[in-house]
């Protein structure tokens, strides 16, 4: 079953007395890993995986139970009771299936080289398992394979997986390497295996799916020489064969094992070559001490999680305290998984030009799901892992130099995907730069983001640049009869233009600043003031009829991205004041915003992404994530406080179904981490955090002195509890804070923010126009 915890570590235990007395510093060790349950999000539509990974590591070694179906995008769903084996690459909370490369499975008895089905596991190498015999913690996973009486344990280094299999007494023990396996069988292009010696097998898998032209190389080393071996192609087993290739190939090895004999397998992964995969595993895991690798992985996670230290209110029951700690630190764990390392241990990587390059003085990363993660995930990294944030920006710059364009808005592997909408590299780059994470060529970066915003790529390169830019430039919006998802694209490009304006201003480019600031008001061209909704408009300027604001739609009738008009109208994060005016003023704005959370949740022709409903607010998908914070802009901050707590309390919890929608590469969890601390970046690039309702009695954010002017920033609450969710008053560094926001500089310079909490709203705090978060500027 999913991981349970025996106790709650609320304060450090200090051992006193006697000659063995430890110093306070030595005794104050908090094991943050104990609060992480990797099974959270593996049920419902969370699409997370429970296996072993490191913060931003290349390898995610995890069980695969299914490879088809939307809820198996990570290869695992908590409803399963059999699994196929353990593969080395997974993505957290994606809505698209891919990865699952290089699968290993230990078996006994008759050799089988096809996985078999969930309905009849006996027809293949698949094995039944029970959640009661399955455990997971940061950097470690184990499960008992019932059909083979084998205990499988997994841990990882940055670029290699380490398997430890404990076998029963058997004269027919096997380890199967399925080189053709992957999540989505239709994505297979080719694979190869080669048995190099009686302790090493190498190969690769190529696929073409969500990630275009993906090729993964591996080098597997075995702690015990195998007695026999072979390969297969399809279901054709070839005993004694040392090499094979084709669309679906693999290798197997045979052993005679004693009772409880352990066999280790180290698997290096590389996107560059087999030789690089061998270098990765030999460098990172030079010996066969599984427990040392496991402990190193746990240590890296504990260090990463310790960046944010929280204390629960004493008014909370022990059970509630444990739930809050587990939910929070698991969210932080999920948020730190990606973006992932892509370069090898010596810096080599395959660029977007298909050539091998070397990352000098930085780690080349991958998996920028920026439509999702520009909102909260990337801003969270600026706080707790600014170096990885800088690596991300430097990676984007390398991608621009090698591929000619910044990926918009997503990049996985060495290909442009452009699967989602928007131009959000600019948001991530500007947000980092303005926060002082500026170890990159800012002029070159501006050149890159401006090219995306101004140049239309050739017809054969439409996976690059802004899709529909020609219409956006011509009409000031994207007509629905020219391009699908036209409303969402227009709204997001307007925000992207505002980000560009902020970058231009920071670099002293006045003409560019004025141009992009004006273009950032393009959202007004699709706000229908008669209905108050962002609405599809054709190239003649006519509104779409008939119009149903609950309609999501599919295909050419999909005018909003995974959402409807109720959910997307609010995506004007950079100019909320302007949106309020378009809605007819504060009163009408508030009436419509109230209605969002109170009307029926029924949605017409929806998609599986639209989940976590409160009225028409859909927290299970990213376009809604900033919306409840908009009450701060309209002078009723207590409604933000109430709704922030409602979402945290009702739509997140510590069970396998503890996420109300796709994790989406850390965004769903990053929202929780920031909101639980009591703030949220509505418009990344603005350096402003707007206030919510902190759920902890104390939060200490430990800052990196290389990027910050202080060691920590503290948020304290007085009289906090589940009922006392409303802010009564606040002080920042001892001075009254009446505003419902503060600047990144306040965090950067260190200090203490204190909130007095109470059970009823204080309708006099933060209500004045001058108290509202700024729009368009930071003034």
TrEMBL record:
<feature type="domain" description="Glycosyl hydrolase family 92 N-terminal">
    <location>
        <begin position="35"/>
        <end position="270"/>
    </location>
</feature>
<dbReference type="GO" id="GO:0000224">
    <property type="term" value="F:peptide-N4-(N-acetyl-beta-glucosaminyl)asparagine amidase activity"/>
</dbReference>
<dbReference type="InterPro" id="IPR012939">
    <property type="entry name" value="Glyco_hydro_92"/>
</dbReference>
<dbReference type="Pfam" id="PF17678">
    <property type="entry name" value="Glyco_hydro_92N"/>
</dbReference>
<dbReference type="GO" id="GO:0006516">
    <property type="term" value="P:glycoprotein catabolic process"/>
</dbReference>
<dbReference type="InterPro" id="IPR050883">
    <property type="entry name" value="PNGase"/>
</dbReference>
<keyword id="KW-0106">Calcium</keyword>
<feature type="region of interest" description="Disordered">
    <location>
        <begin position="760"/>
        <end position="779"/>
    </location>
</feature>
<dbReference type="InterPro" id="IPR005887">
    <property type="entry name" value="GH92_a_mannosidase_put"/>
</dbReference>
<protein>
    <submittedName>
        <fullName>Glycoside hydrolase family 92 protein</fullName>
    </submittedName>
</protein>
<dbReference type="GO" id="GO:0005829">
    <property type="term" value="C:cytosol"/>
</dbReference>
<dbReference type="InterPro" id="IPR008928">
    <property type="entry name" value="6-hairpin_glycosidase_sf"/>
</dbReference>
<dbReference type="Pfam" id="PF07971">
    <property type="entry name" value="Glyco_hydro_92"/>
</dbReference>
<dbReference type="InterPro" id="IPR041371">
    <property type="entry name" value="GH92_N"/>
</dbReference>
<feature type="domain" description="Glycosyl hydrolase family 92">
    <location>
        <begin position="276"/>
        <end position="759"/>
    </location>
</feature>
<dbReference type="GO" id="GO:0005975">
    <property type="term" value="P:carbohydrate metabolic process"/>
</dbReference>
<keyword id="KW-0378">Hydrolase</keyword>
<comment type="subunit">
    <text>Monomer.</text>
</comment>
<dbReference type="InterPro" id="IPR014718">
    <property type="entry name" value="GH-type_carb-bd"/>
</dbReference>
<dbReference type="GO" id="GO:0030246">
    <property type="term" value="F:carbohydrate binding"/>
</dbReference>
